Amino acid sequence: MRARDLKKEEAICAASIDLINRKGLSETSMSQIAKQANVSPATIYIYFKNKEDLLKQLYLRIQREASTSIFTGYESFLPLDESFKILLRKAYQYFLRKPEHFIFLEQYSNSPLISKIGDDQIQNYFEPLFNLFARGRQNKMIKDLPDEMLLSFTFYPIMQLVKYHQSGKLRLQYSELEATLVMAWNSIKRDREVGKFINN
Amino acid sequence: MRARDLKKEEAICAASIDLINRKGLSETSMSQIAKQANVSPATIYIYFKNKEDLLKQLYLRIQREASTSIFTGYESFLPLDESFKILLRKAYQYFLRKPEHFIFLEQYSNSPLISKIGDDQIQNYFEPLFNLFARGRQNKMIKDLPDEMLLSFTFYPIMQLVKYHQSGKLRLQYSELEATLVMAWNSIKRDREVGKFINN
Amino acid sequence: MRARDLKKEEAICAASIDLINRKGLSETSMSQIAKQANVSPATIYIYFKNKEDLLKQLYLRIQREASTSIFTGYESFLPLDESFKILLRKAYQYFLRKPEHFIFLEQYSNSPLISKIGDDQIQNYFEPLFNLFARGRQNKMIKDLPDEMLLSFTFYPIMQLVKYHQSGKLRLQYSELEATLVMAWNSIKRDREVGKFINN
Amino acid sequence: MRARDLKKEEAICAASIDLINRKGLSETSMSQIAKQANVSPATIYIYFKNKEDLLKQLYLRIQREASTSIFTGYESFLPLDESFKILLRKAYQYFLRKPEHFIFLEQYSNSPLISKIGDDQIQNYFEPLFNLFARGRQNKMIKDLPDEMLLSFTFYPIMQLVKYHQSGKLRLQYSELEATLVMAWNSIKRDREVGKFINN
DNA sequence: CATGAATGAGAATTCATTCAT
DNA sequence: AATGAATGAATTCTCATTCAT
């Protein structure tokens, strides 16, 4: 597998994402994908080893694309909180622009398929954010909490709001988004009031 | 006339949940379920109209059970923040005790199947939390933000931590959980420091 | 089997005939019949041994009813041609009144199921007609041809016209029917013009 | 790319016809057909959309083949009665040679499936006979009756005799067939004796 | 590289029938 | 007698994948 015609490969990916988003992983068959992509079923097997591989590649390439788009071009000399808000803002806006990608990622990563992907492969996509966290902890500007906790109160709430946006339940204005970013930052930034249990 | 066998229905549900957790929605077939539940495939169709209905009923009954378990028995005369923390703590602990239920809900609600369920049917499960939010907003103890925003910074981060727990990436100690609940509360409680965009 | 409640038995028969006429033998299941007859599937097996038996009994009882209705009450002292025309007219009118019965008979008798029914069982239903033919042959009023041939040019054309009527393609007026009966009679009545091959 | 294998399609058709003749429309399953045709069940669905389509195509192609075989090559310059007898004779002999086709047609056209076929599609197969009728009516050689009536006293009696032949109840000698054709012709030919109701 | 044909395995669902009450 | 529950076997049809061109 892995051949030339990028147009065809792209068509296969687009068809897959669209179908999976609309019908679900279980209701999307290789022949449906083939039909919608205007290729023969056999052609898919030139570009991907099998269905599992197709889905995995899709997941990885969407992650990669999102990560690239979100984490490139932000100036690391900015104050930590600014950098942090820039990243979250870009993430929010990126997924608003690419709802199909967002939905696909959610579906895939909440299914057992996700276990077939090595942790490291994913972890890397968050690296810049983790670096930011590390810097913040060193500078005593961010609470001394594990990355997962910090993500849970910053990145994931934002992702949840993307979901609300896409379902139409809550569409943030620009100013509201900015306030939200402040909320996210406040929830992890270190301050004078000391918590009872966590030594921050 | 033979009476309907609740044992059988229960076996079907349990088998479904188990298989779906292990193999995924897409890889779980009616005959696999039947086999694991020790009934005939045809028997499933006595209790559920079809596969879609089976999954939907599972989703609703798991939601209901979780909601009941989490939202019953908390004393409403307690201070708002206490009530709030009790609910989140119970939610966290409930899903820790019922990982299969948690995983099922995540998988189902991130698939297109979720769109077949009326909004109202779901919304109700959160009602006590929404009531709390409403009270808090009236009392000026909670920021004047829409429910979705409040959930995004309280309930969903906690759910994210359940996920981390179950994947083994981050298992909170009791004291850490308590600190986390404080974090959640702090993120939505109204305070003297006035944000730039939100008038709280 | 064979029990009491005639209402139930009648309901089962009526439902069967209706469904088979509308959906076809292949598309009619015992549970559909049960549902339409407002009884339990198990109940059908009290009245009939199994599906094959149900169909067979239906066929026989419809044949019997038709035969009874057509062949009773015609006066045998009438001239042969009058008797003959009376019978055909009654047959035509009977099936016009009972389209469901007609359609069922056609469907059943043109399927391999018919082979499960002994020839004698059916033959009897035509007996009065056969007697008429025999008398006619003896009296030299009817061509000396086998019963099957005589039926083919009298009874079956009339049945074909019933079919046309029911499909809406050709609905005979009363006078047209009478003319048709004359045609039928002419085709088998003996006359002076002698055929080349058959000695009539 | 593999080309479609006409041998396979033919095998599927032959197997279908054979099974339907022996077991009946209702008792013939796609897998039985596949097995007897020595193909995979899935292969049938390459050539036919579904079971209903398979049966419909079978019906149409058998009708077409019969029609072609019966109605080609008869000389239209012959006297009307000769032409007419030629056609009926060919029909009789054709179906005697192809009992499976005859039985299939009878079974299909007496089931509700027939209603899924447009009238026009069928009507065409009889066209040459209808033309003959039209000519005969114009020439005042045939009674002035609708096509359906004429068919009922000519074509269908002959078909009924085919049925008798195949069931073994009455096998006509050649000379008997000829006499029968005369009967058919006489029943529709116009003559001096004027009927009471029909103005012929 | 690309294809439509081909397929065995398996999907969801229904079947005719029997069971337990 | 009558029922709805229960079922193993069978139904139609689709699946992921490979084959032959």
Q: What is the makeup of the main sheet of chain A?
A: none
CATH architecture classification name of the largest domain in chain A: Orthogonal Bundle
Q: Into which percentage range does the β-strand content of chain A fall?
A: under 5%
Number of helices of chain A: 11
Pair of chains with the largest interface and how many residues each contributes: A-B, 41 and 41 residues
Find the structural class of chain A using helix and strand composition. Answer: mainly alpha
Give a quick precis of the structure.
The structure is a homotetramer of 200-residue chains. With 200 residues, chain A is mainly α.
How would you describe what is shown here?
Four copies of one chain form a homotetramer. Chain A has 200 residues and is an all-alpha fold. Helix content of chain A is 68%, strand content 0%. Chain A has two domains: 1-48, Homeodomain-like (Arc Repressor Mutant, subunit A); 59-199, Tetracycline Repressor, domain 2 (Orthogonal Bundle). Chain A is built from eleven helices and no strands. In chain A, helix 4 packs across helix 6 (99-109) and helix 5 (80-97) runs antiparallel to helix 8. The radius of gyration of chain A is 19 Å and the shape is elongated. The relative contact order of chain A is 0.10. The interface between A and B is large, with 41 and 41 residues. Chain B binds a DNA duplex (21 and 21 nucleotides) through residues 1-5, 8, 29-31, 39-46, 50-51.
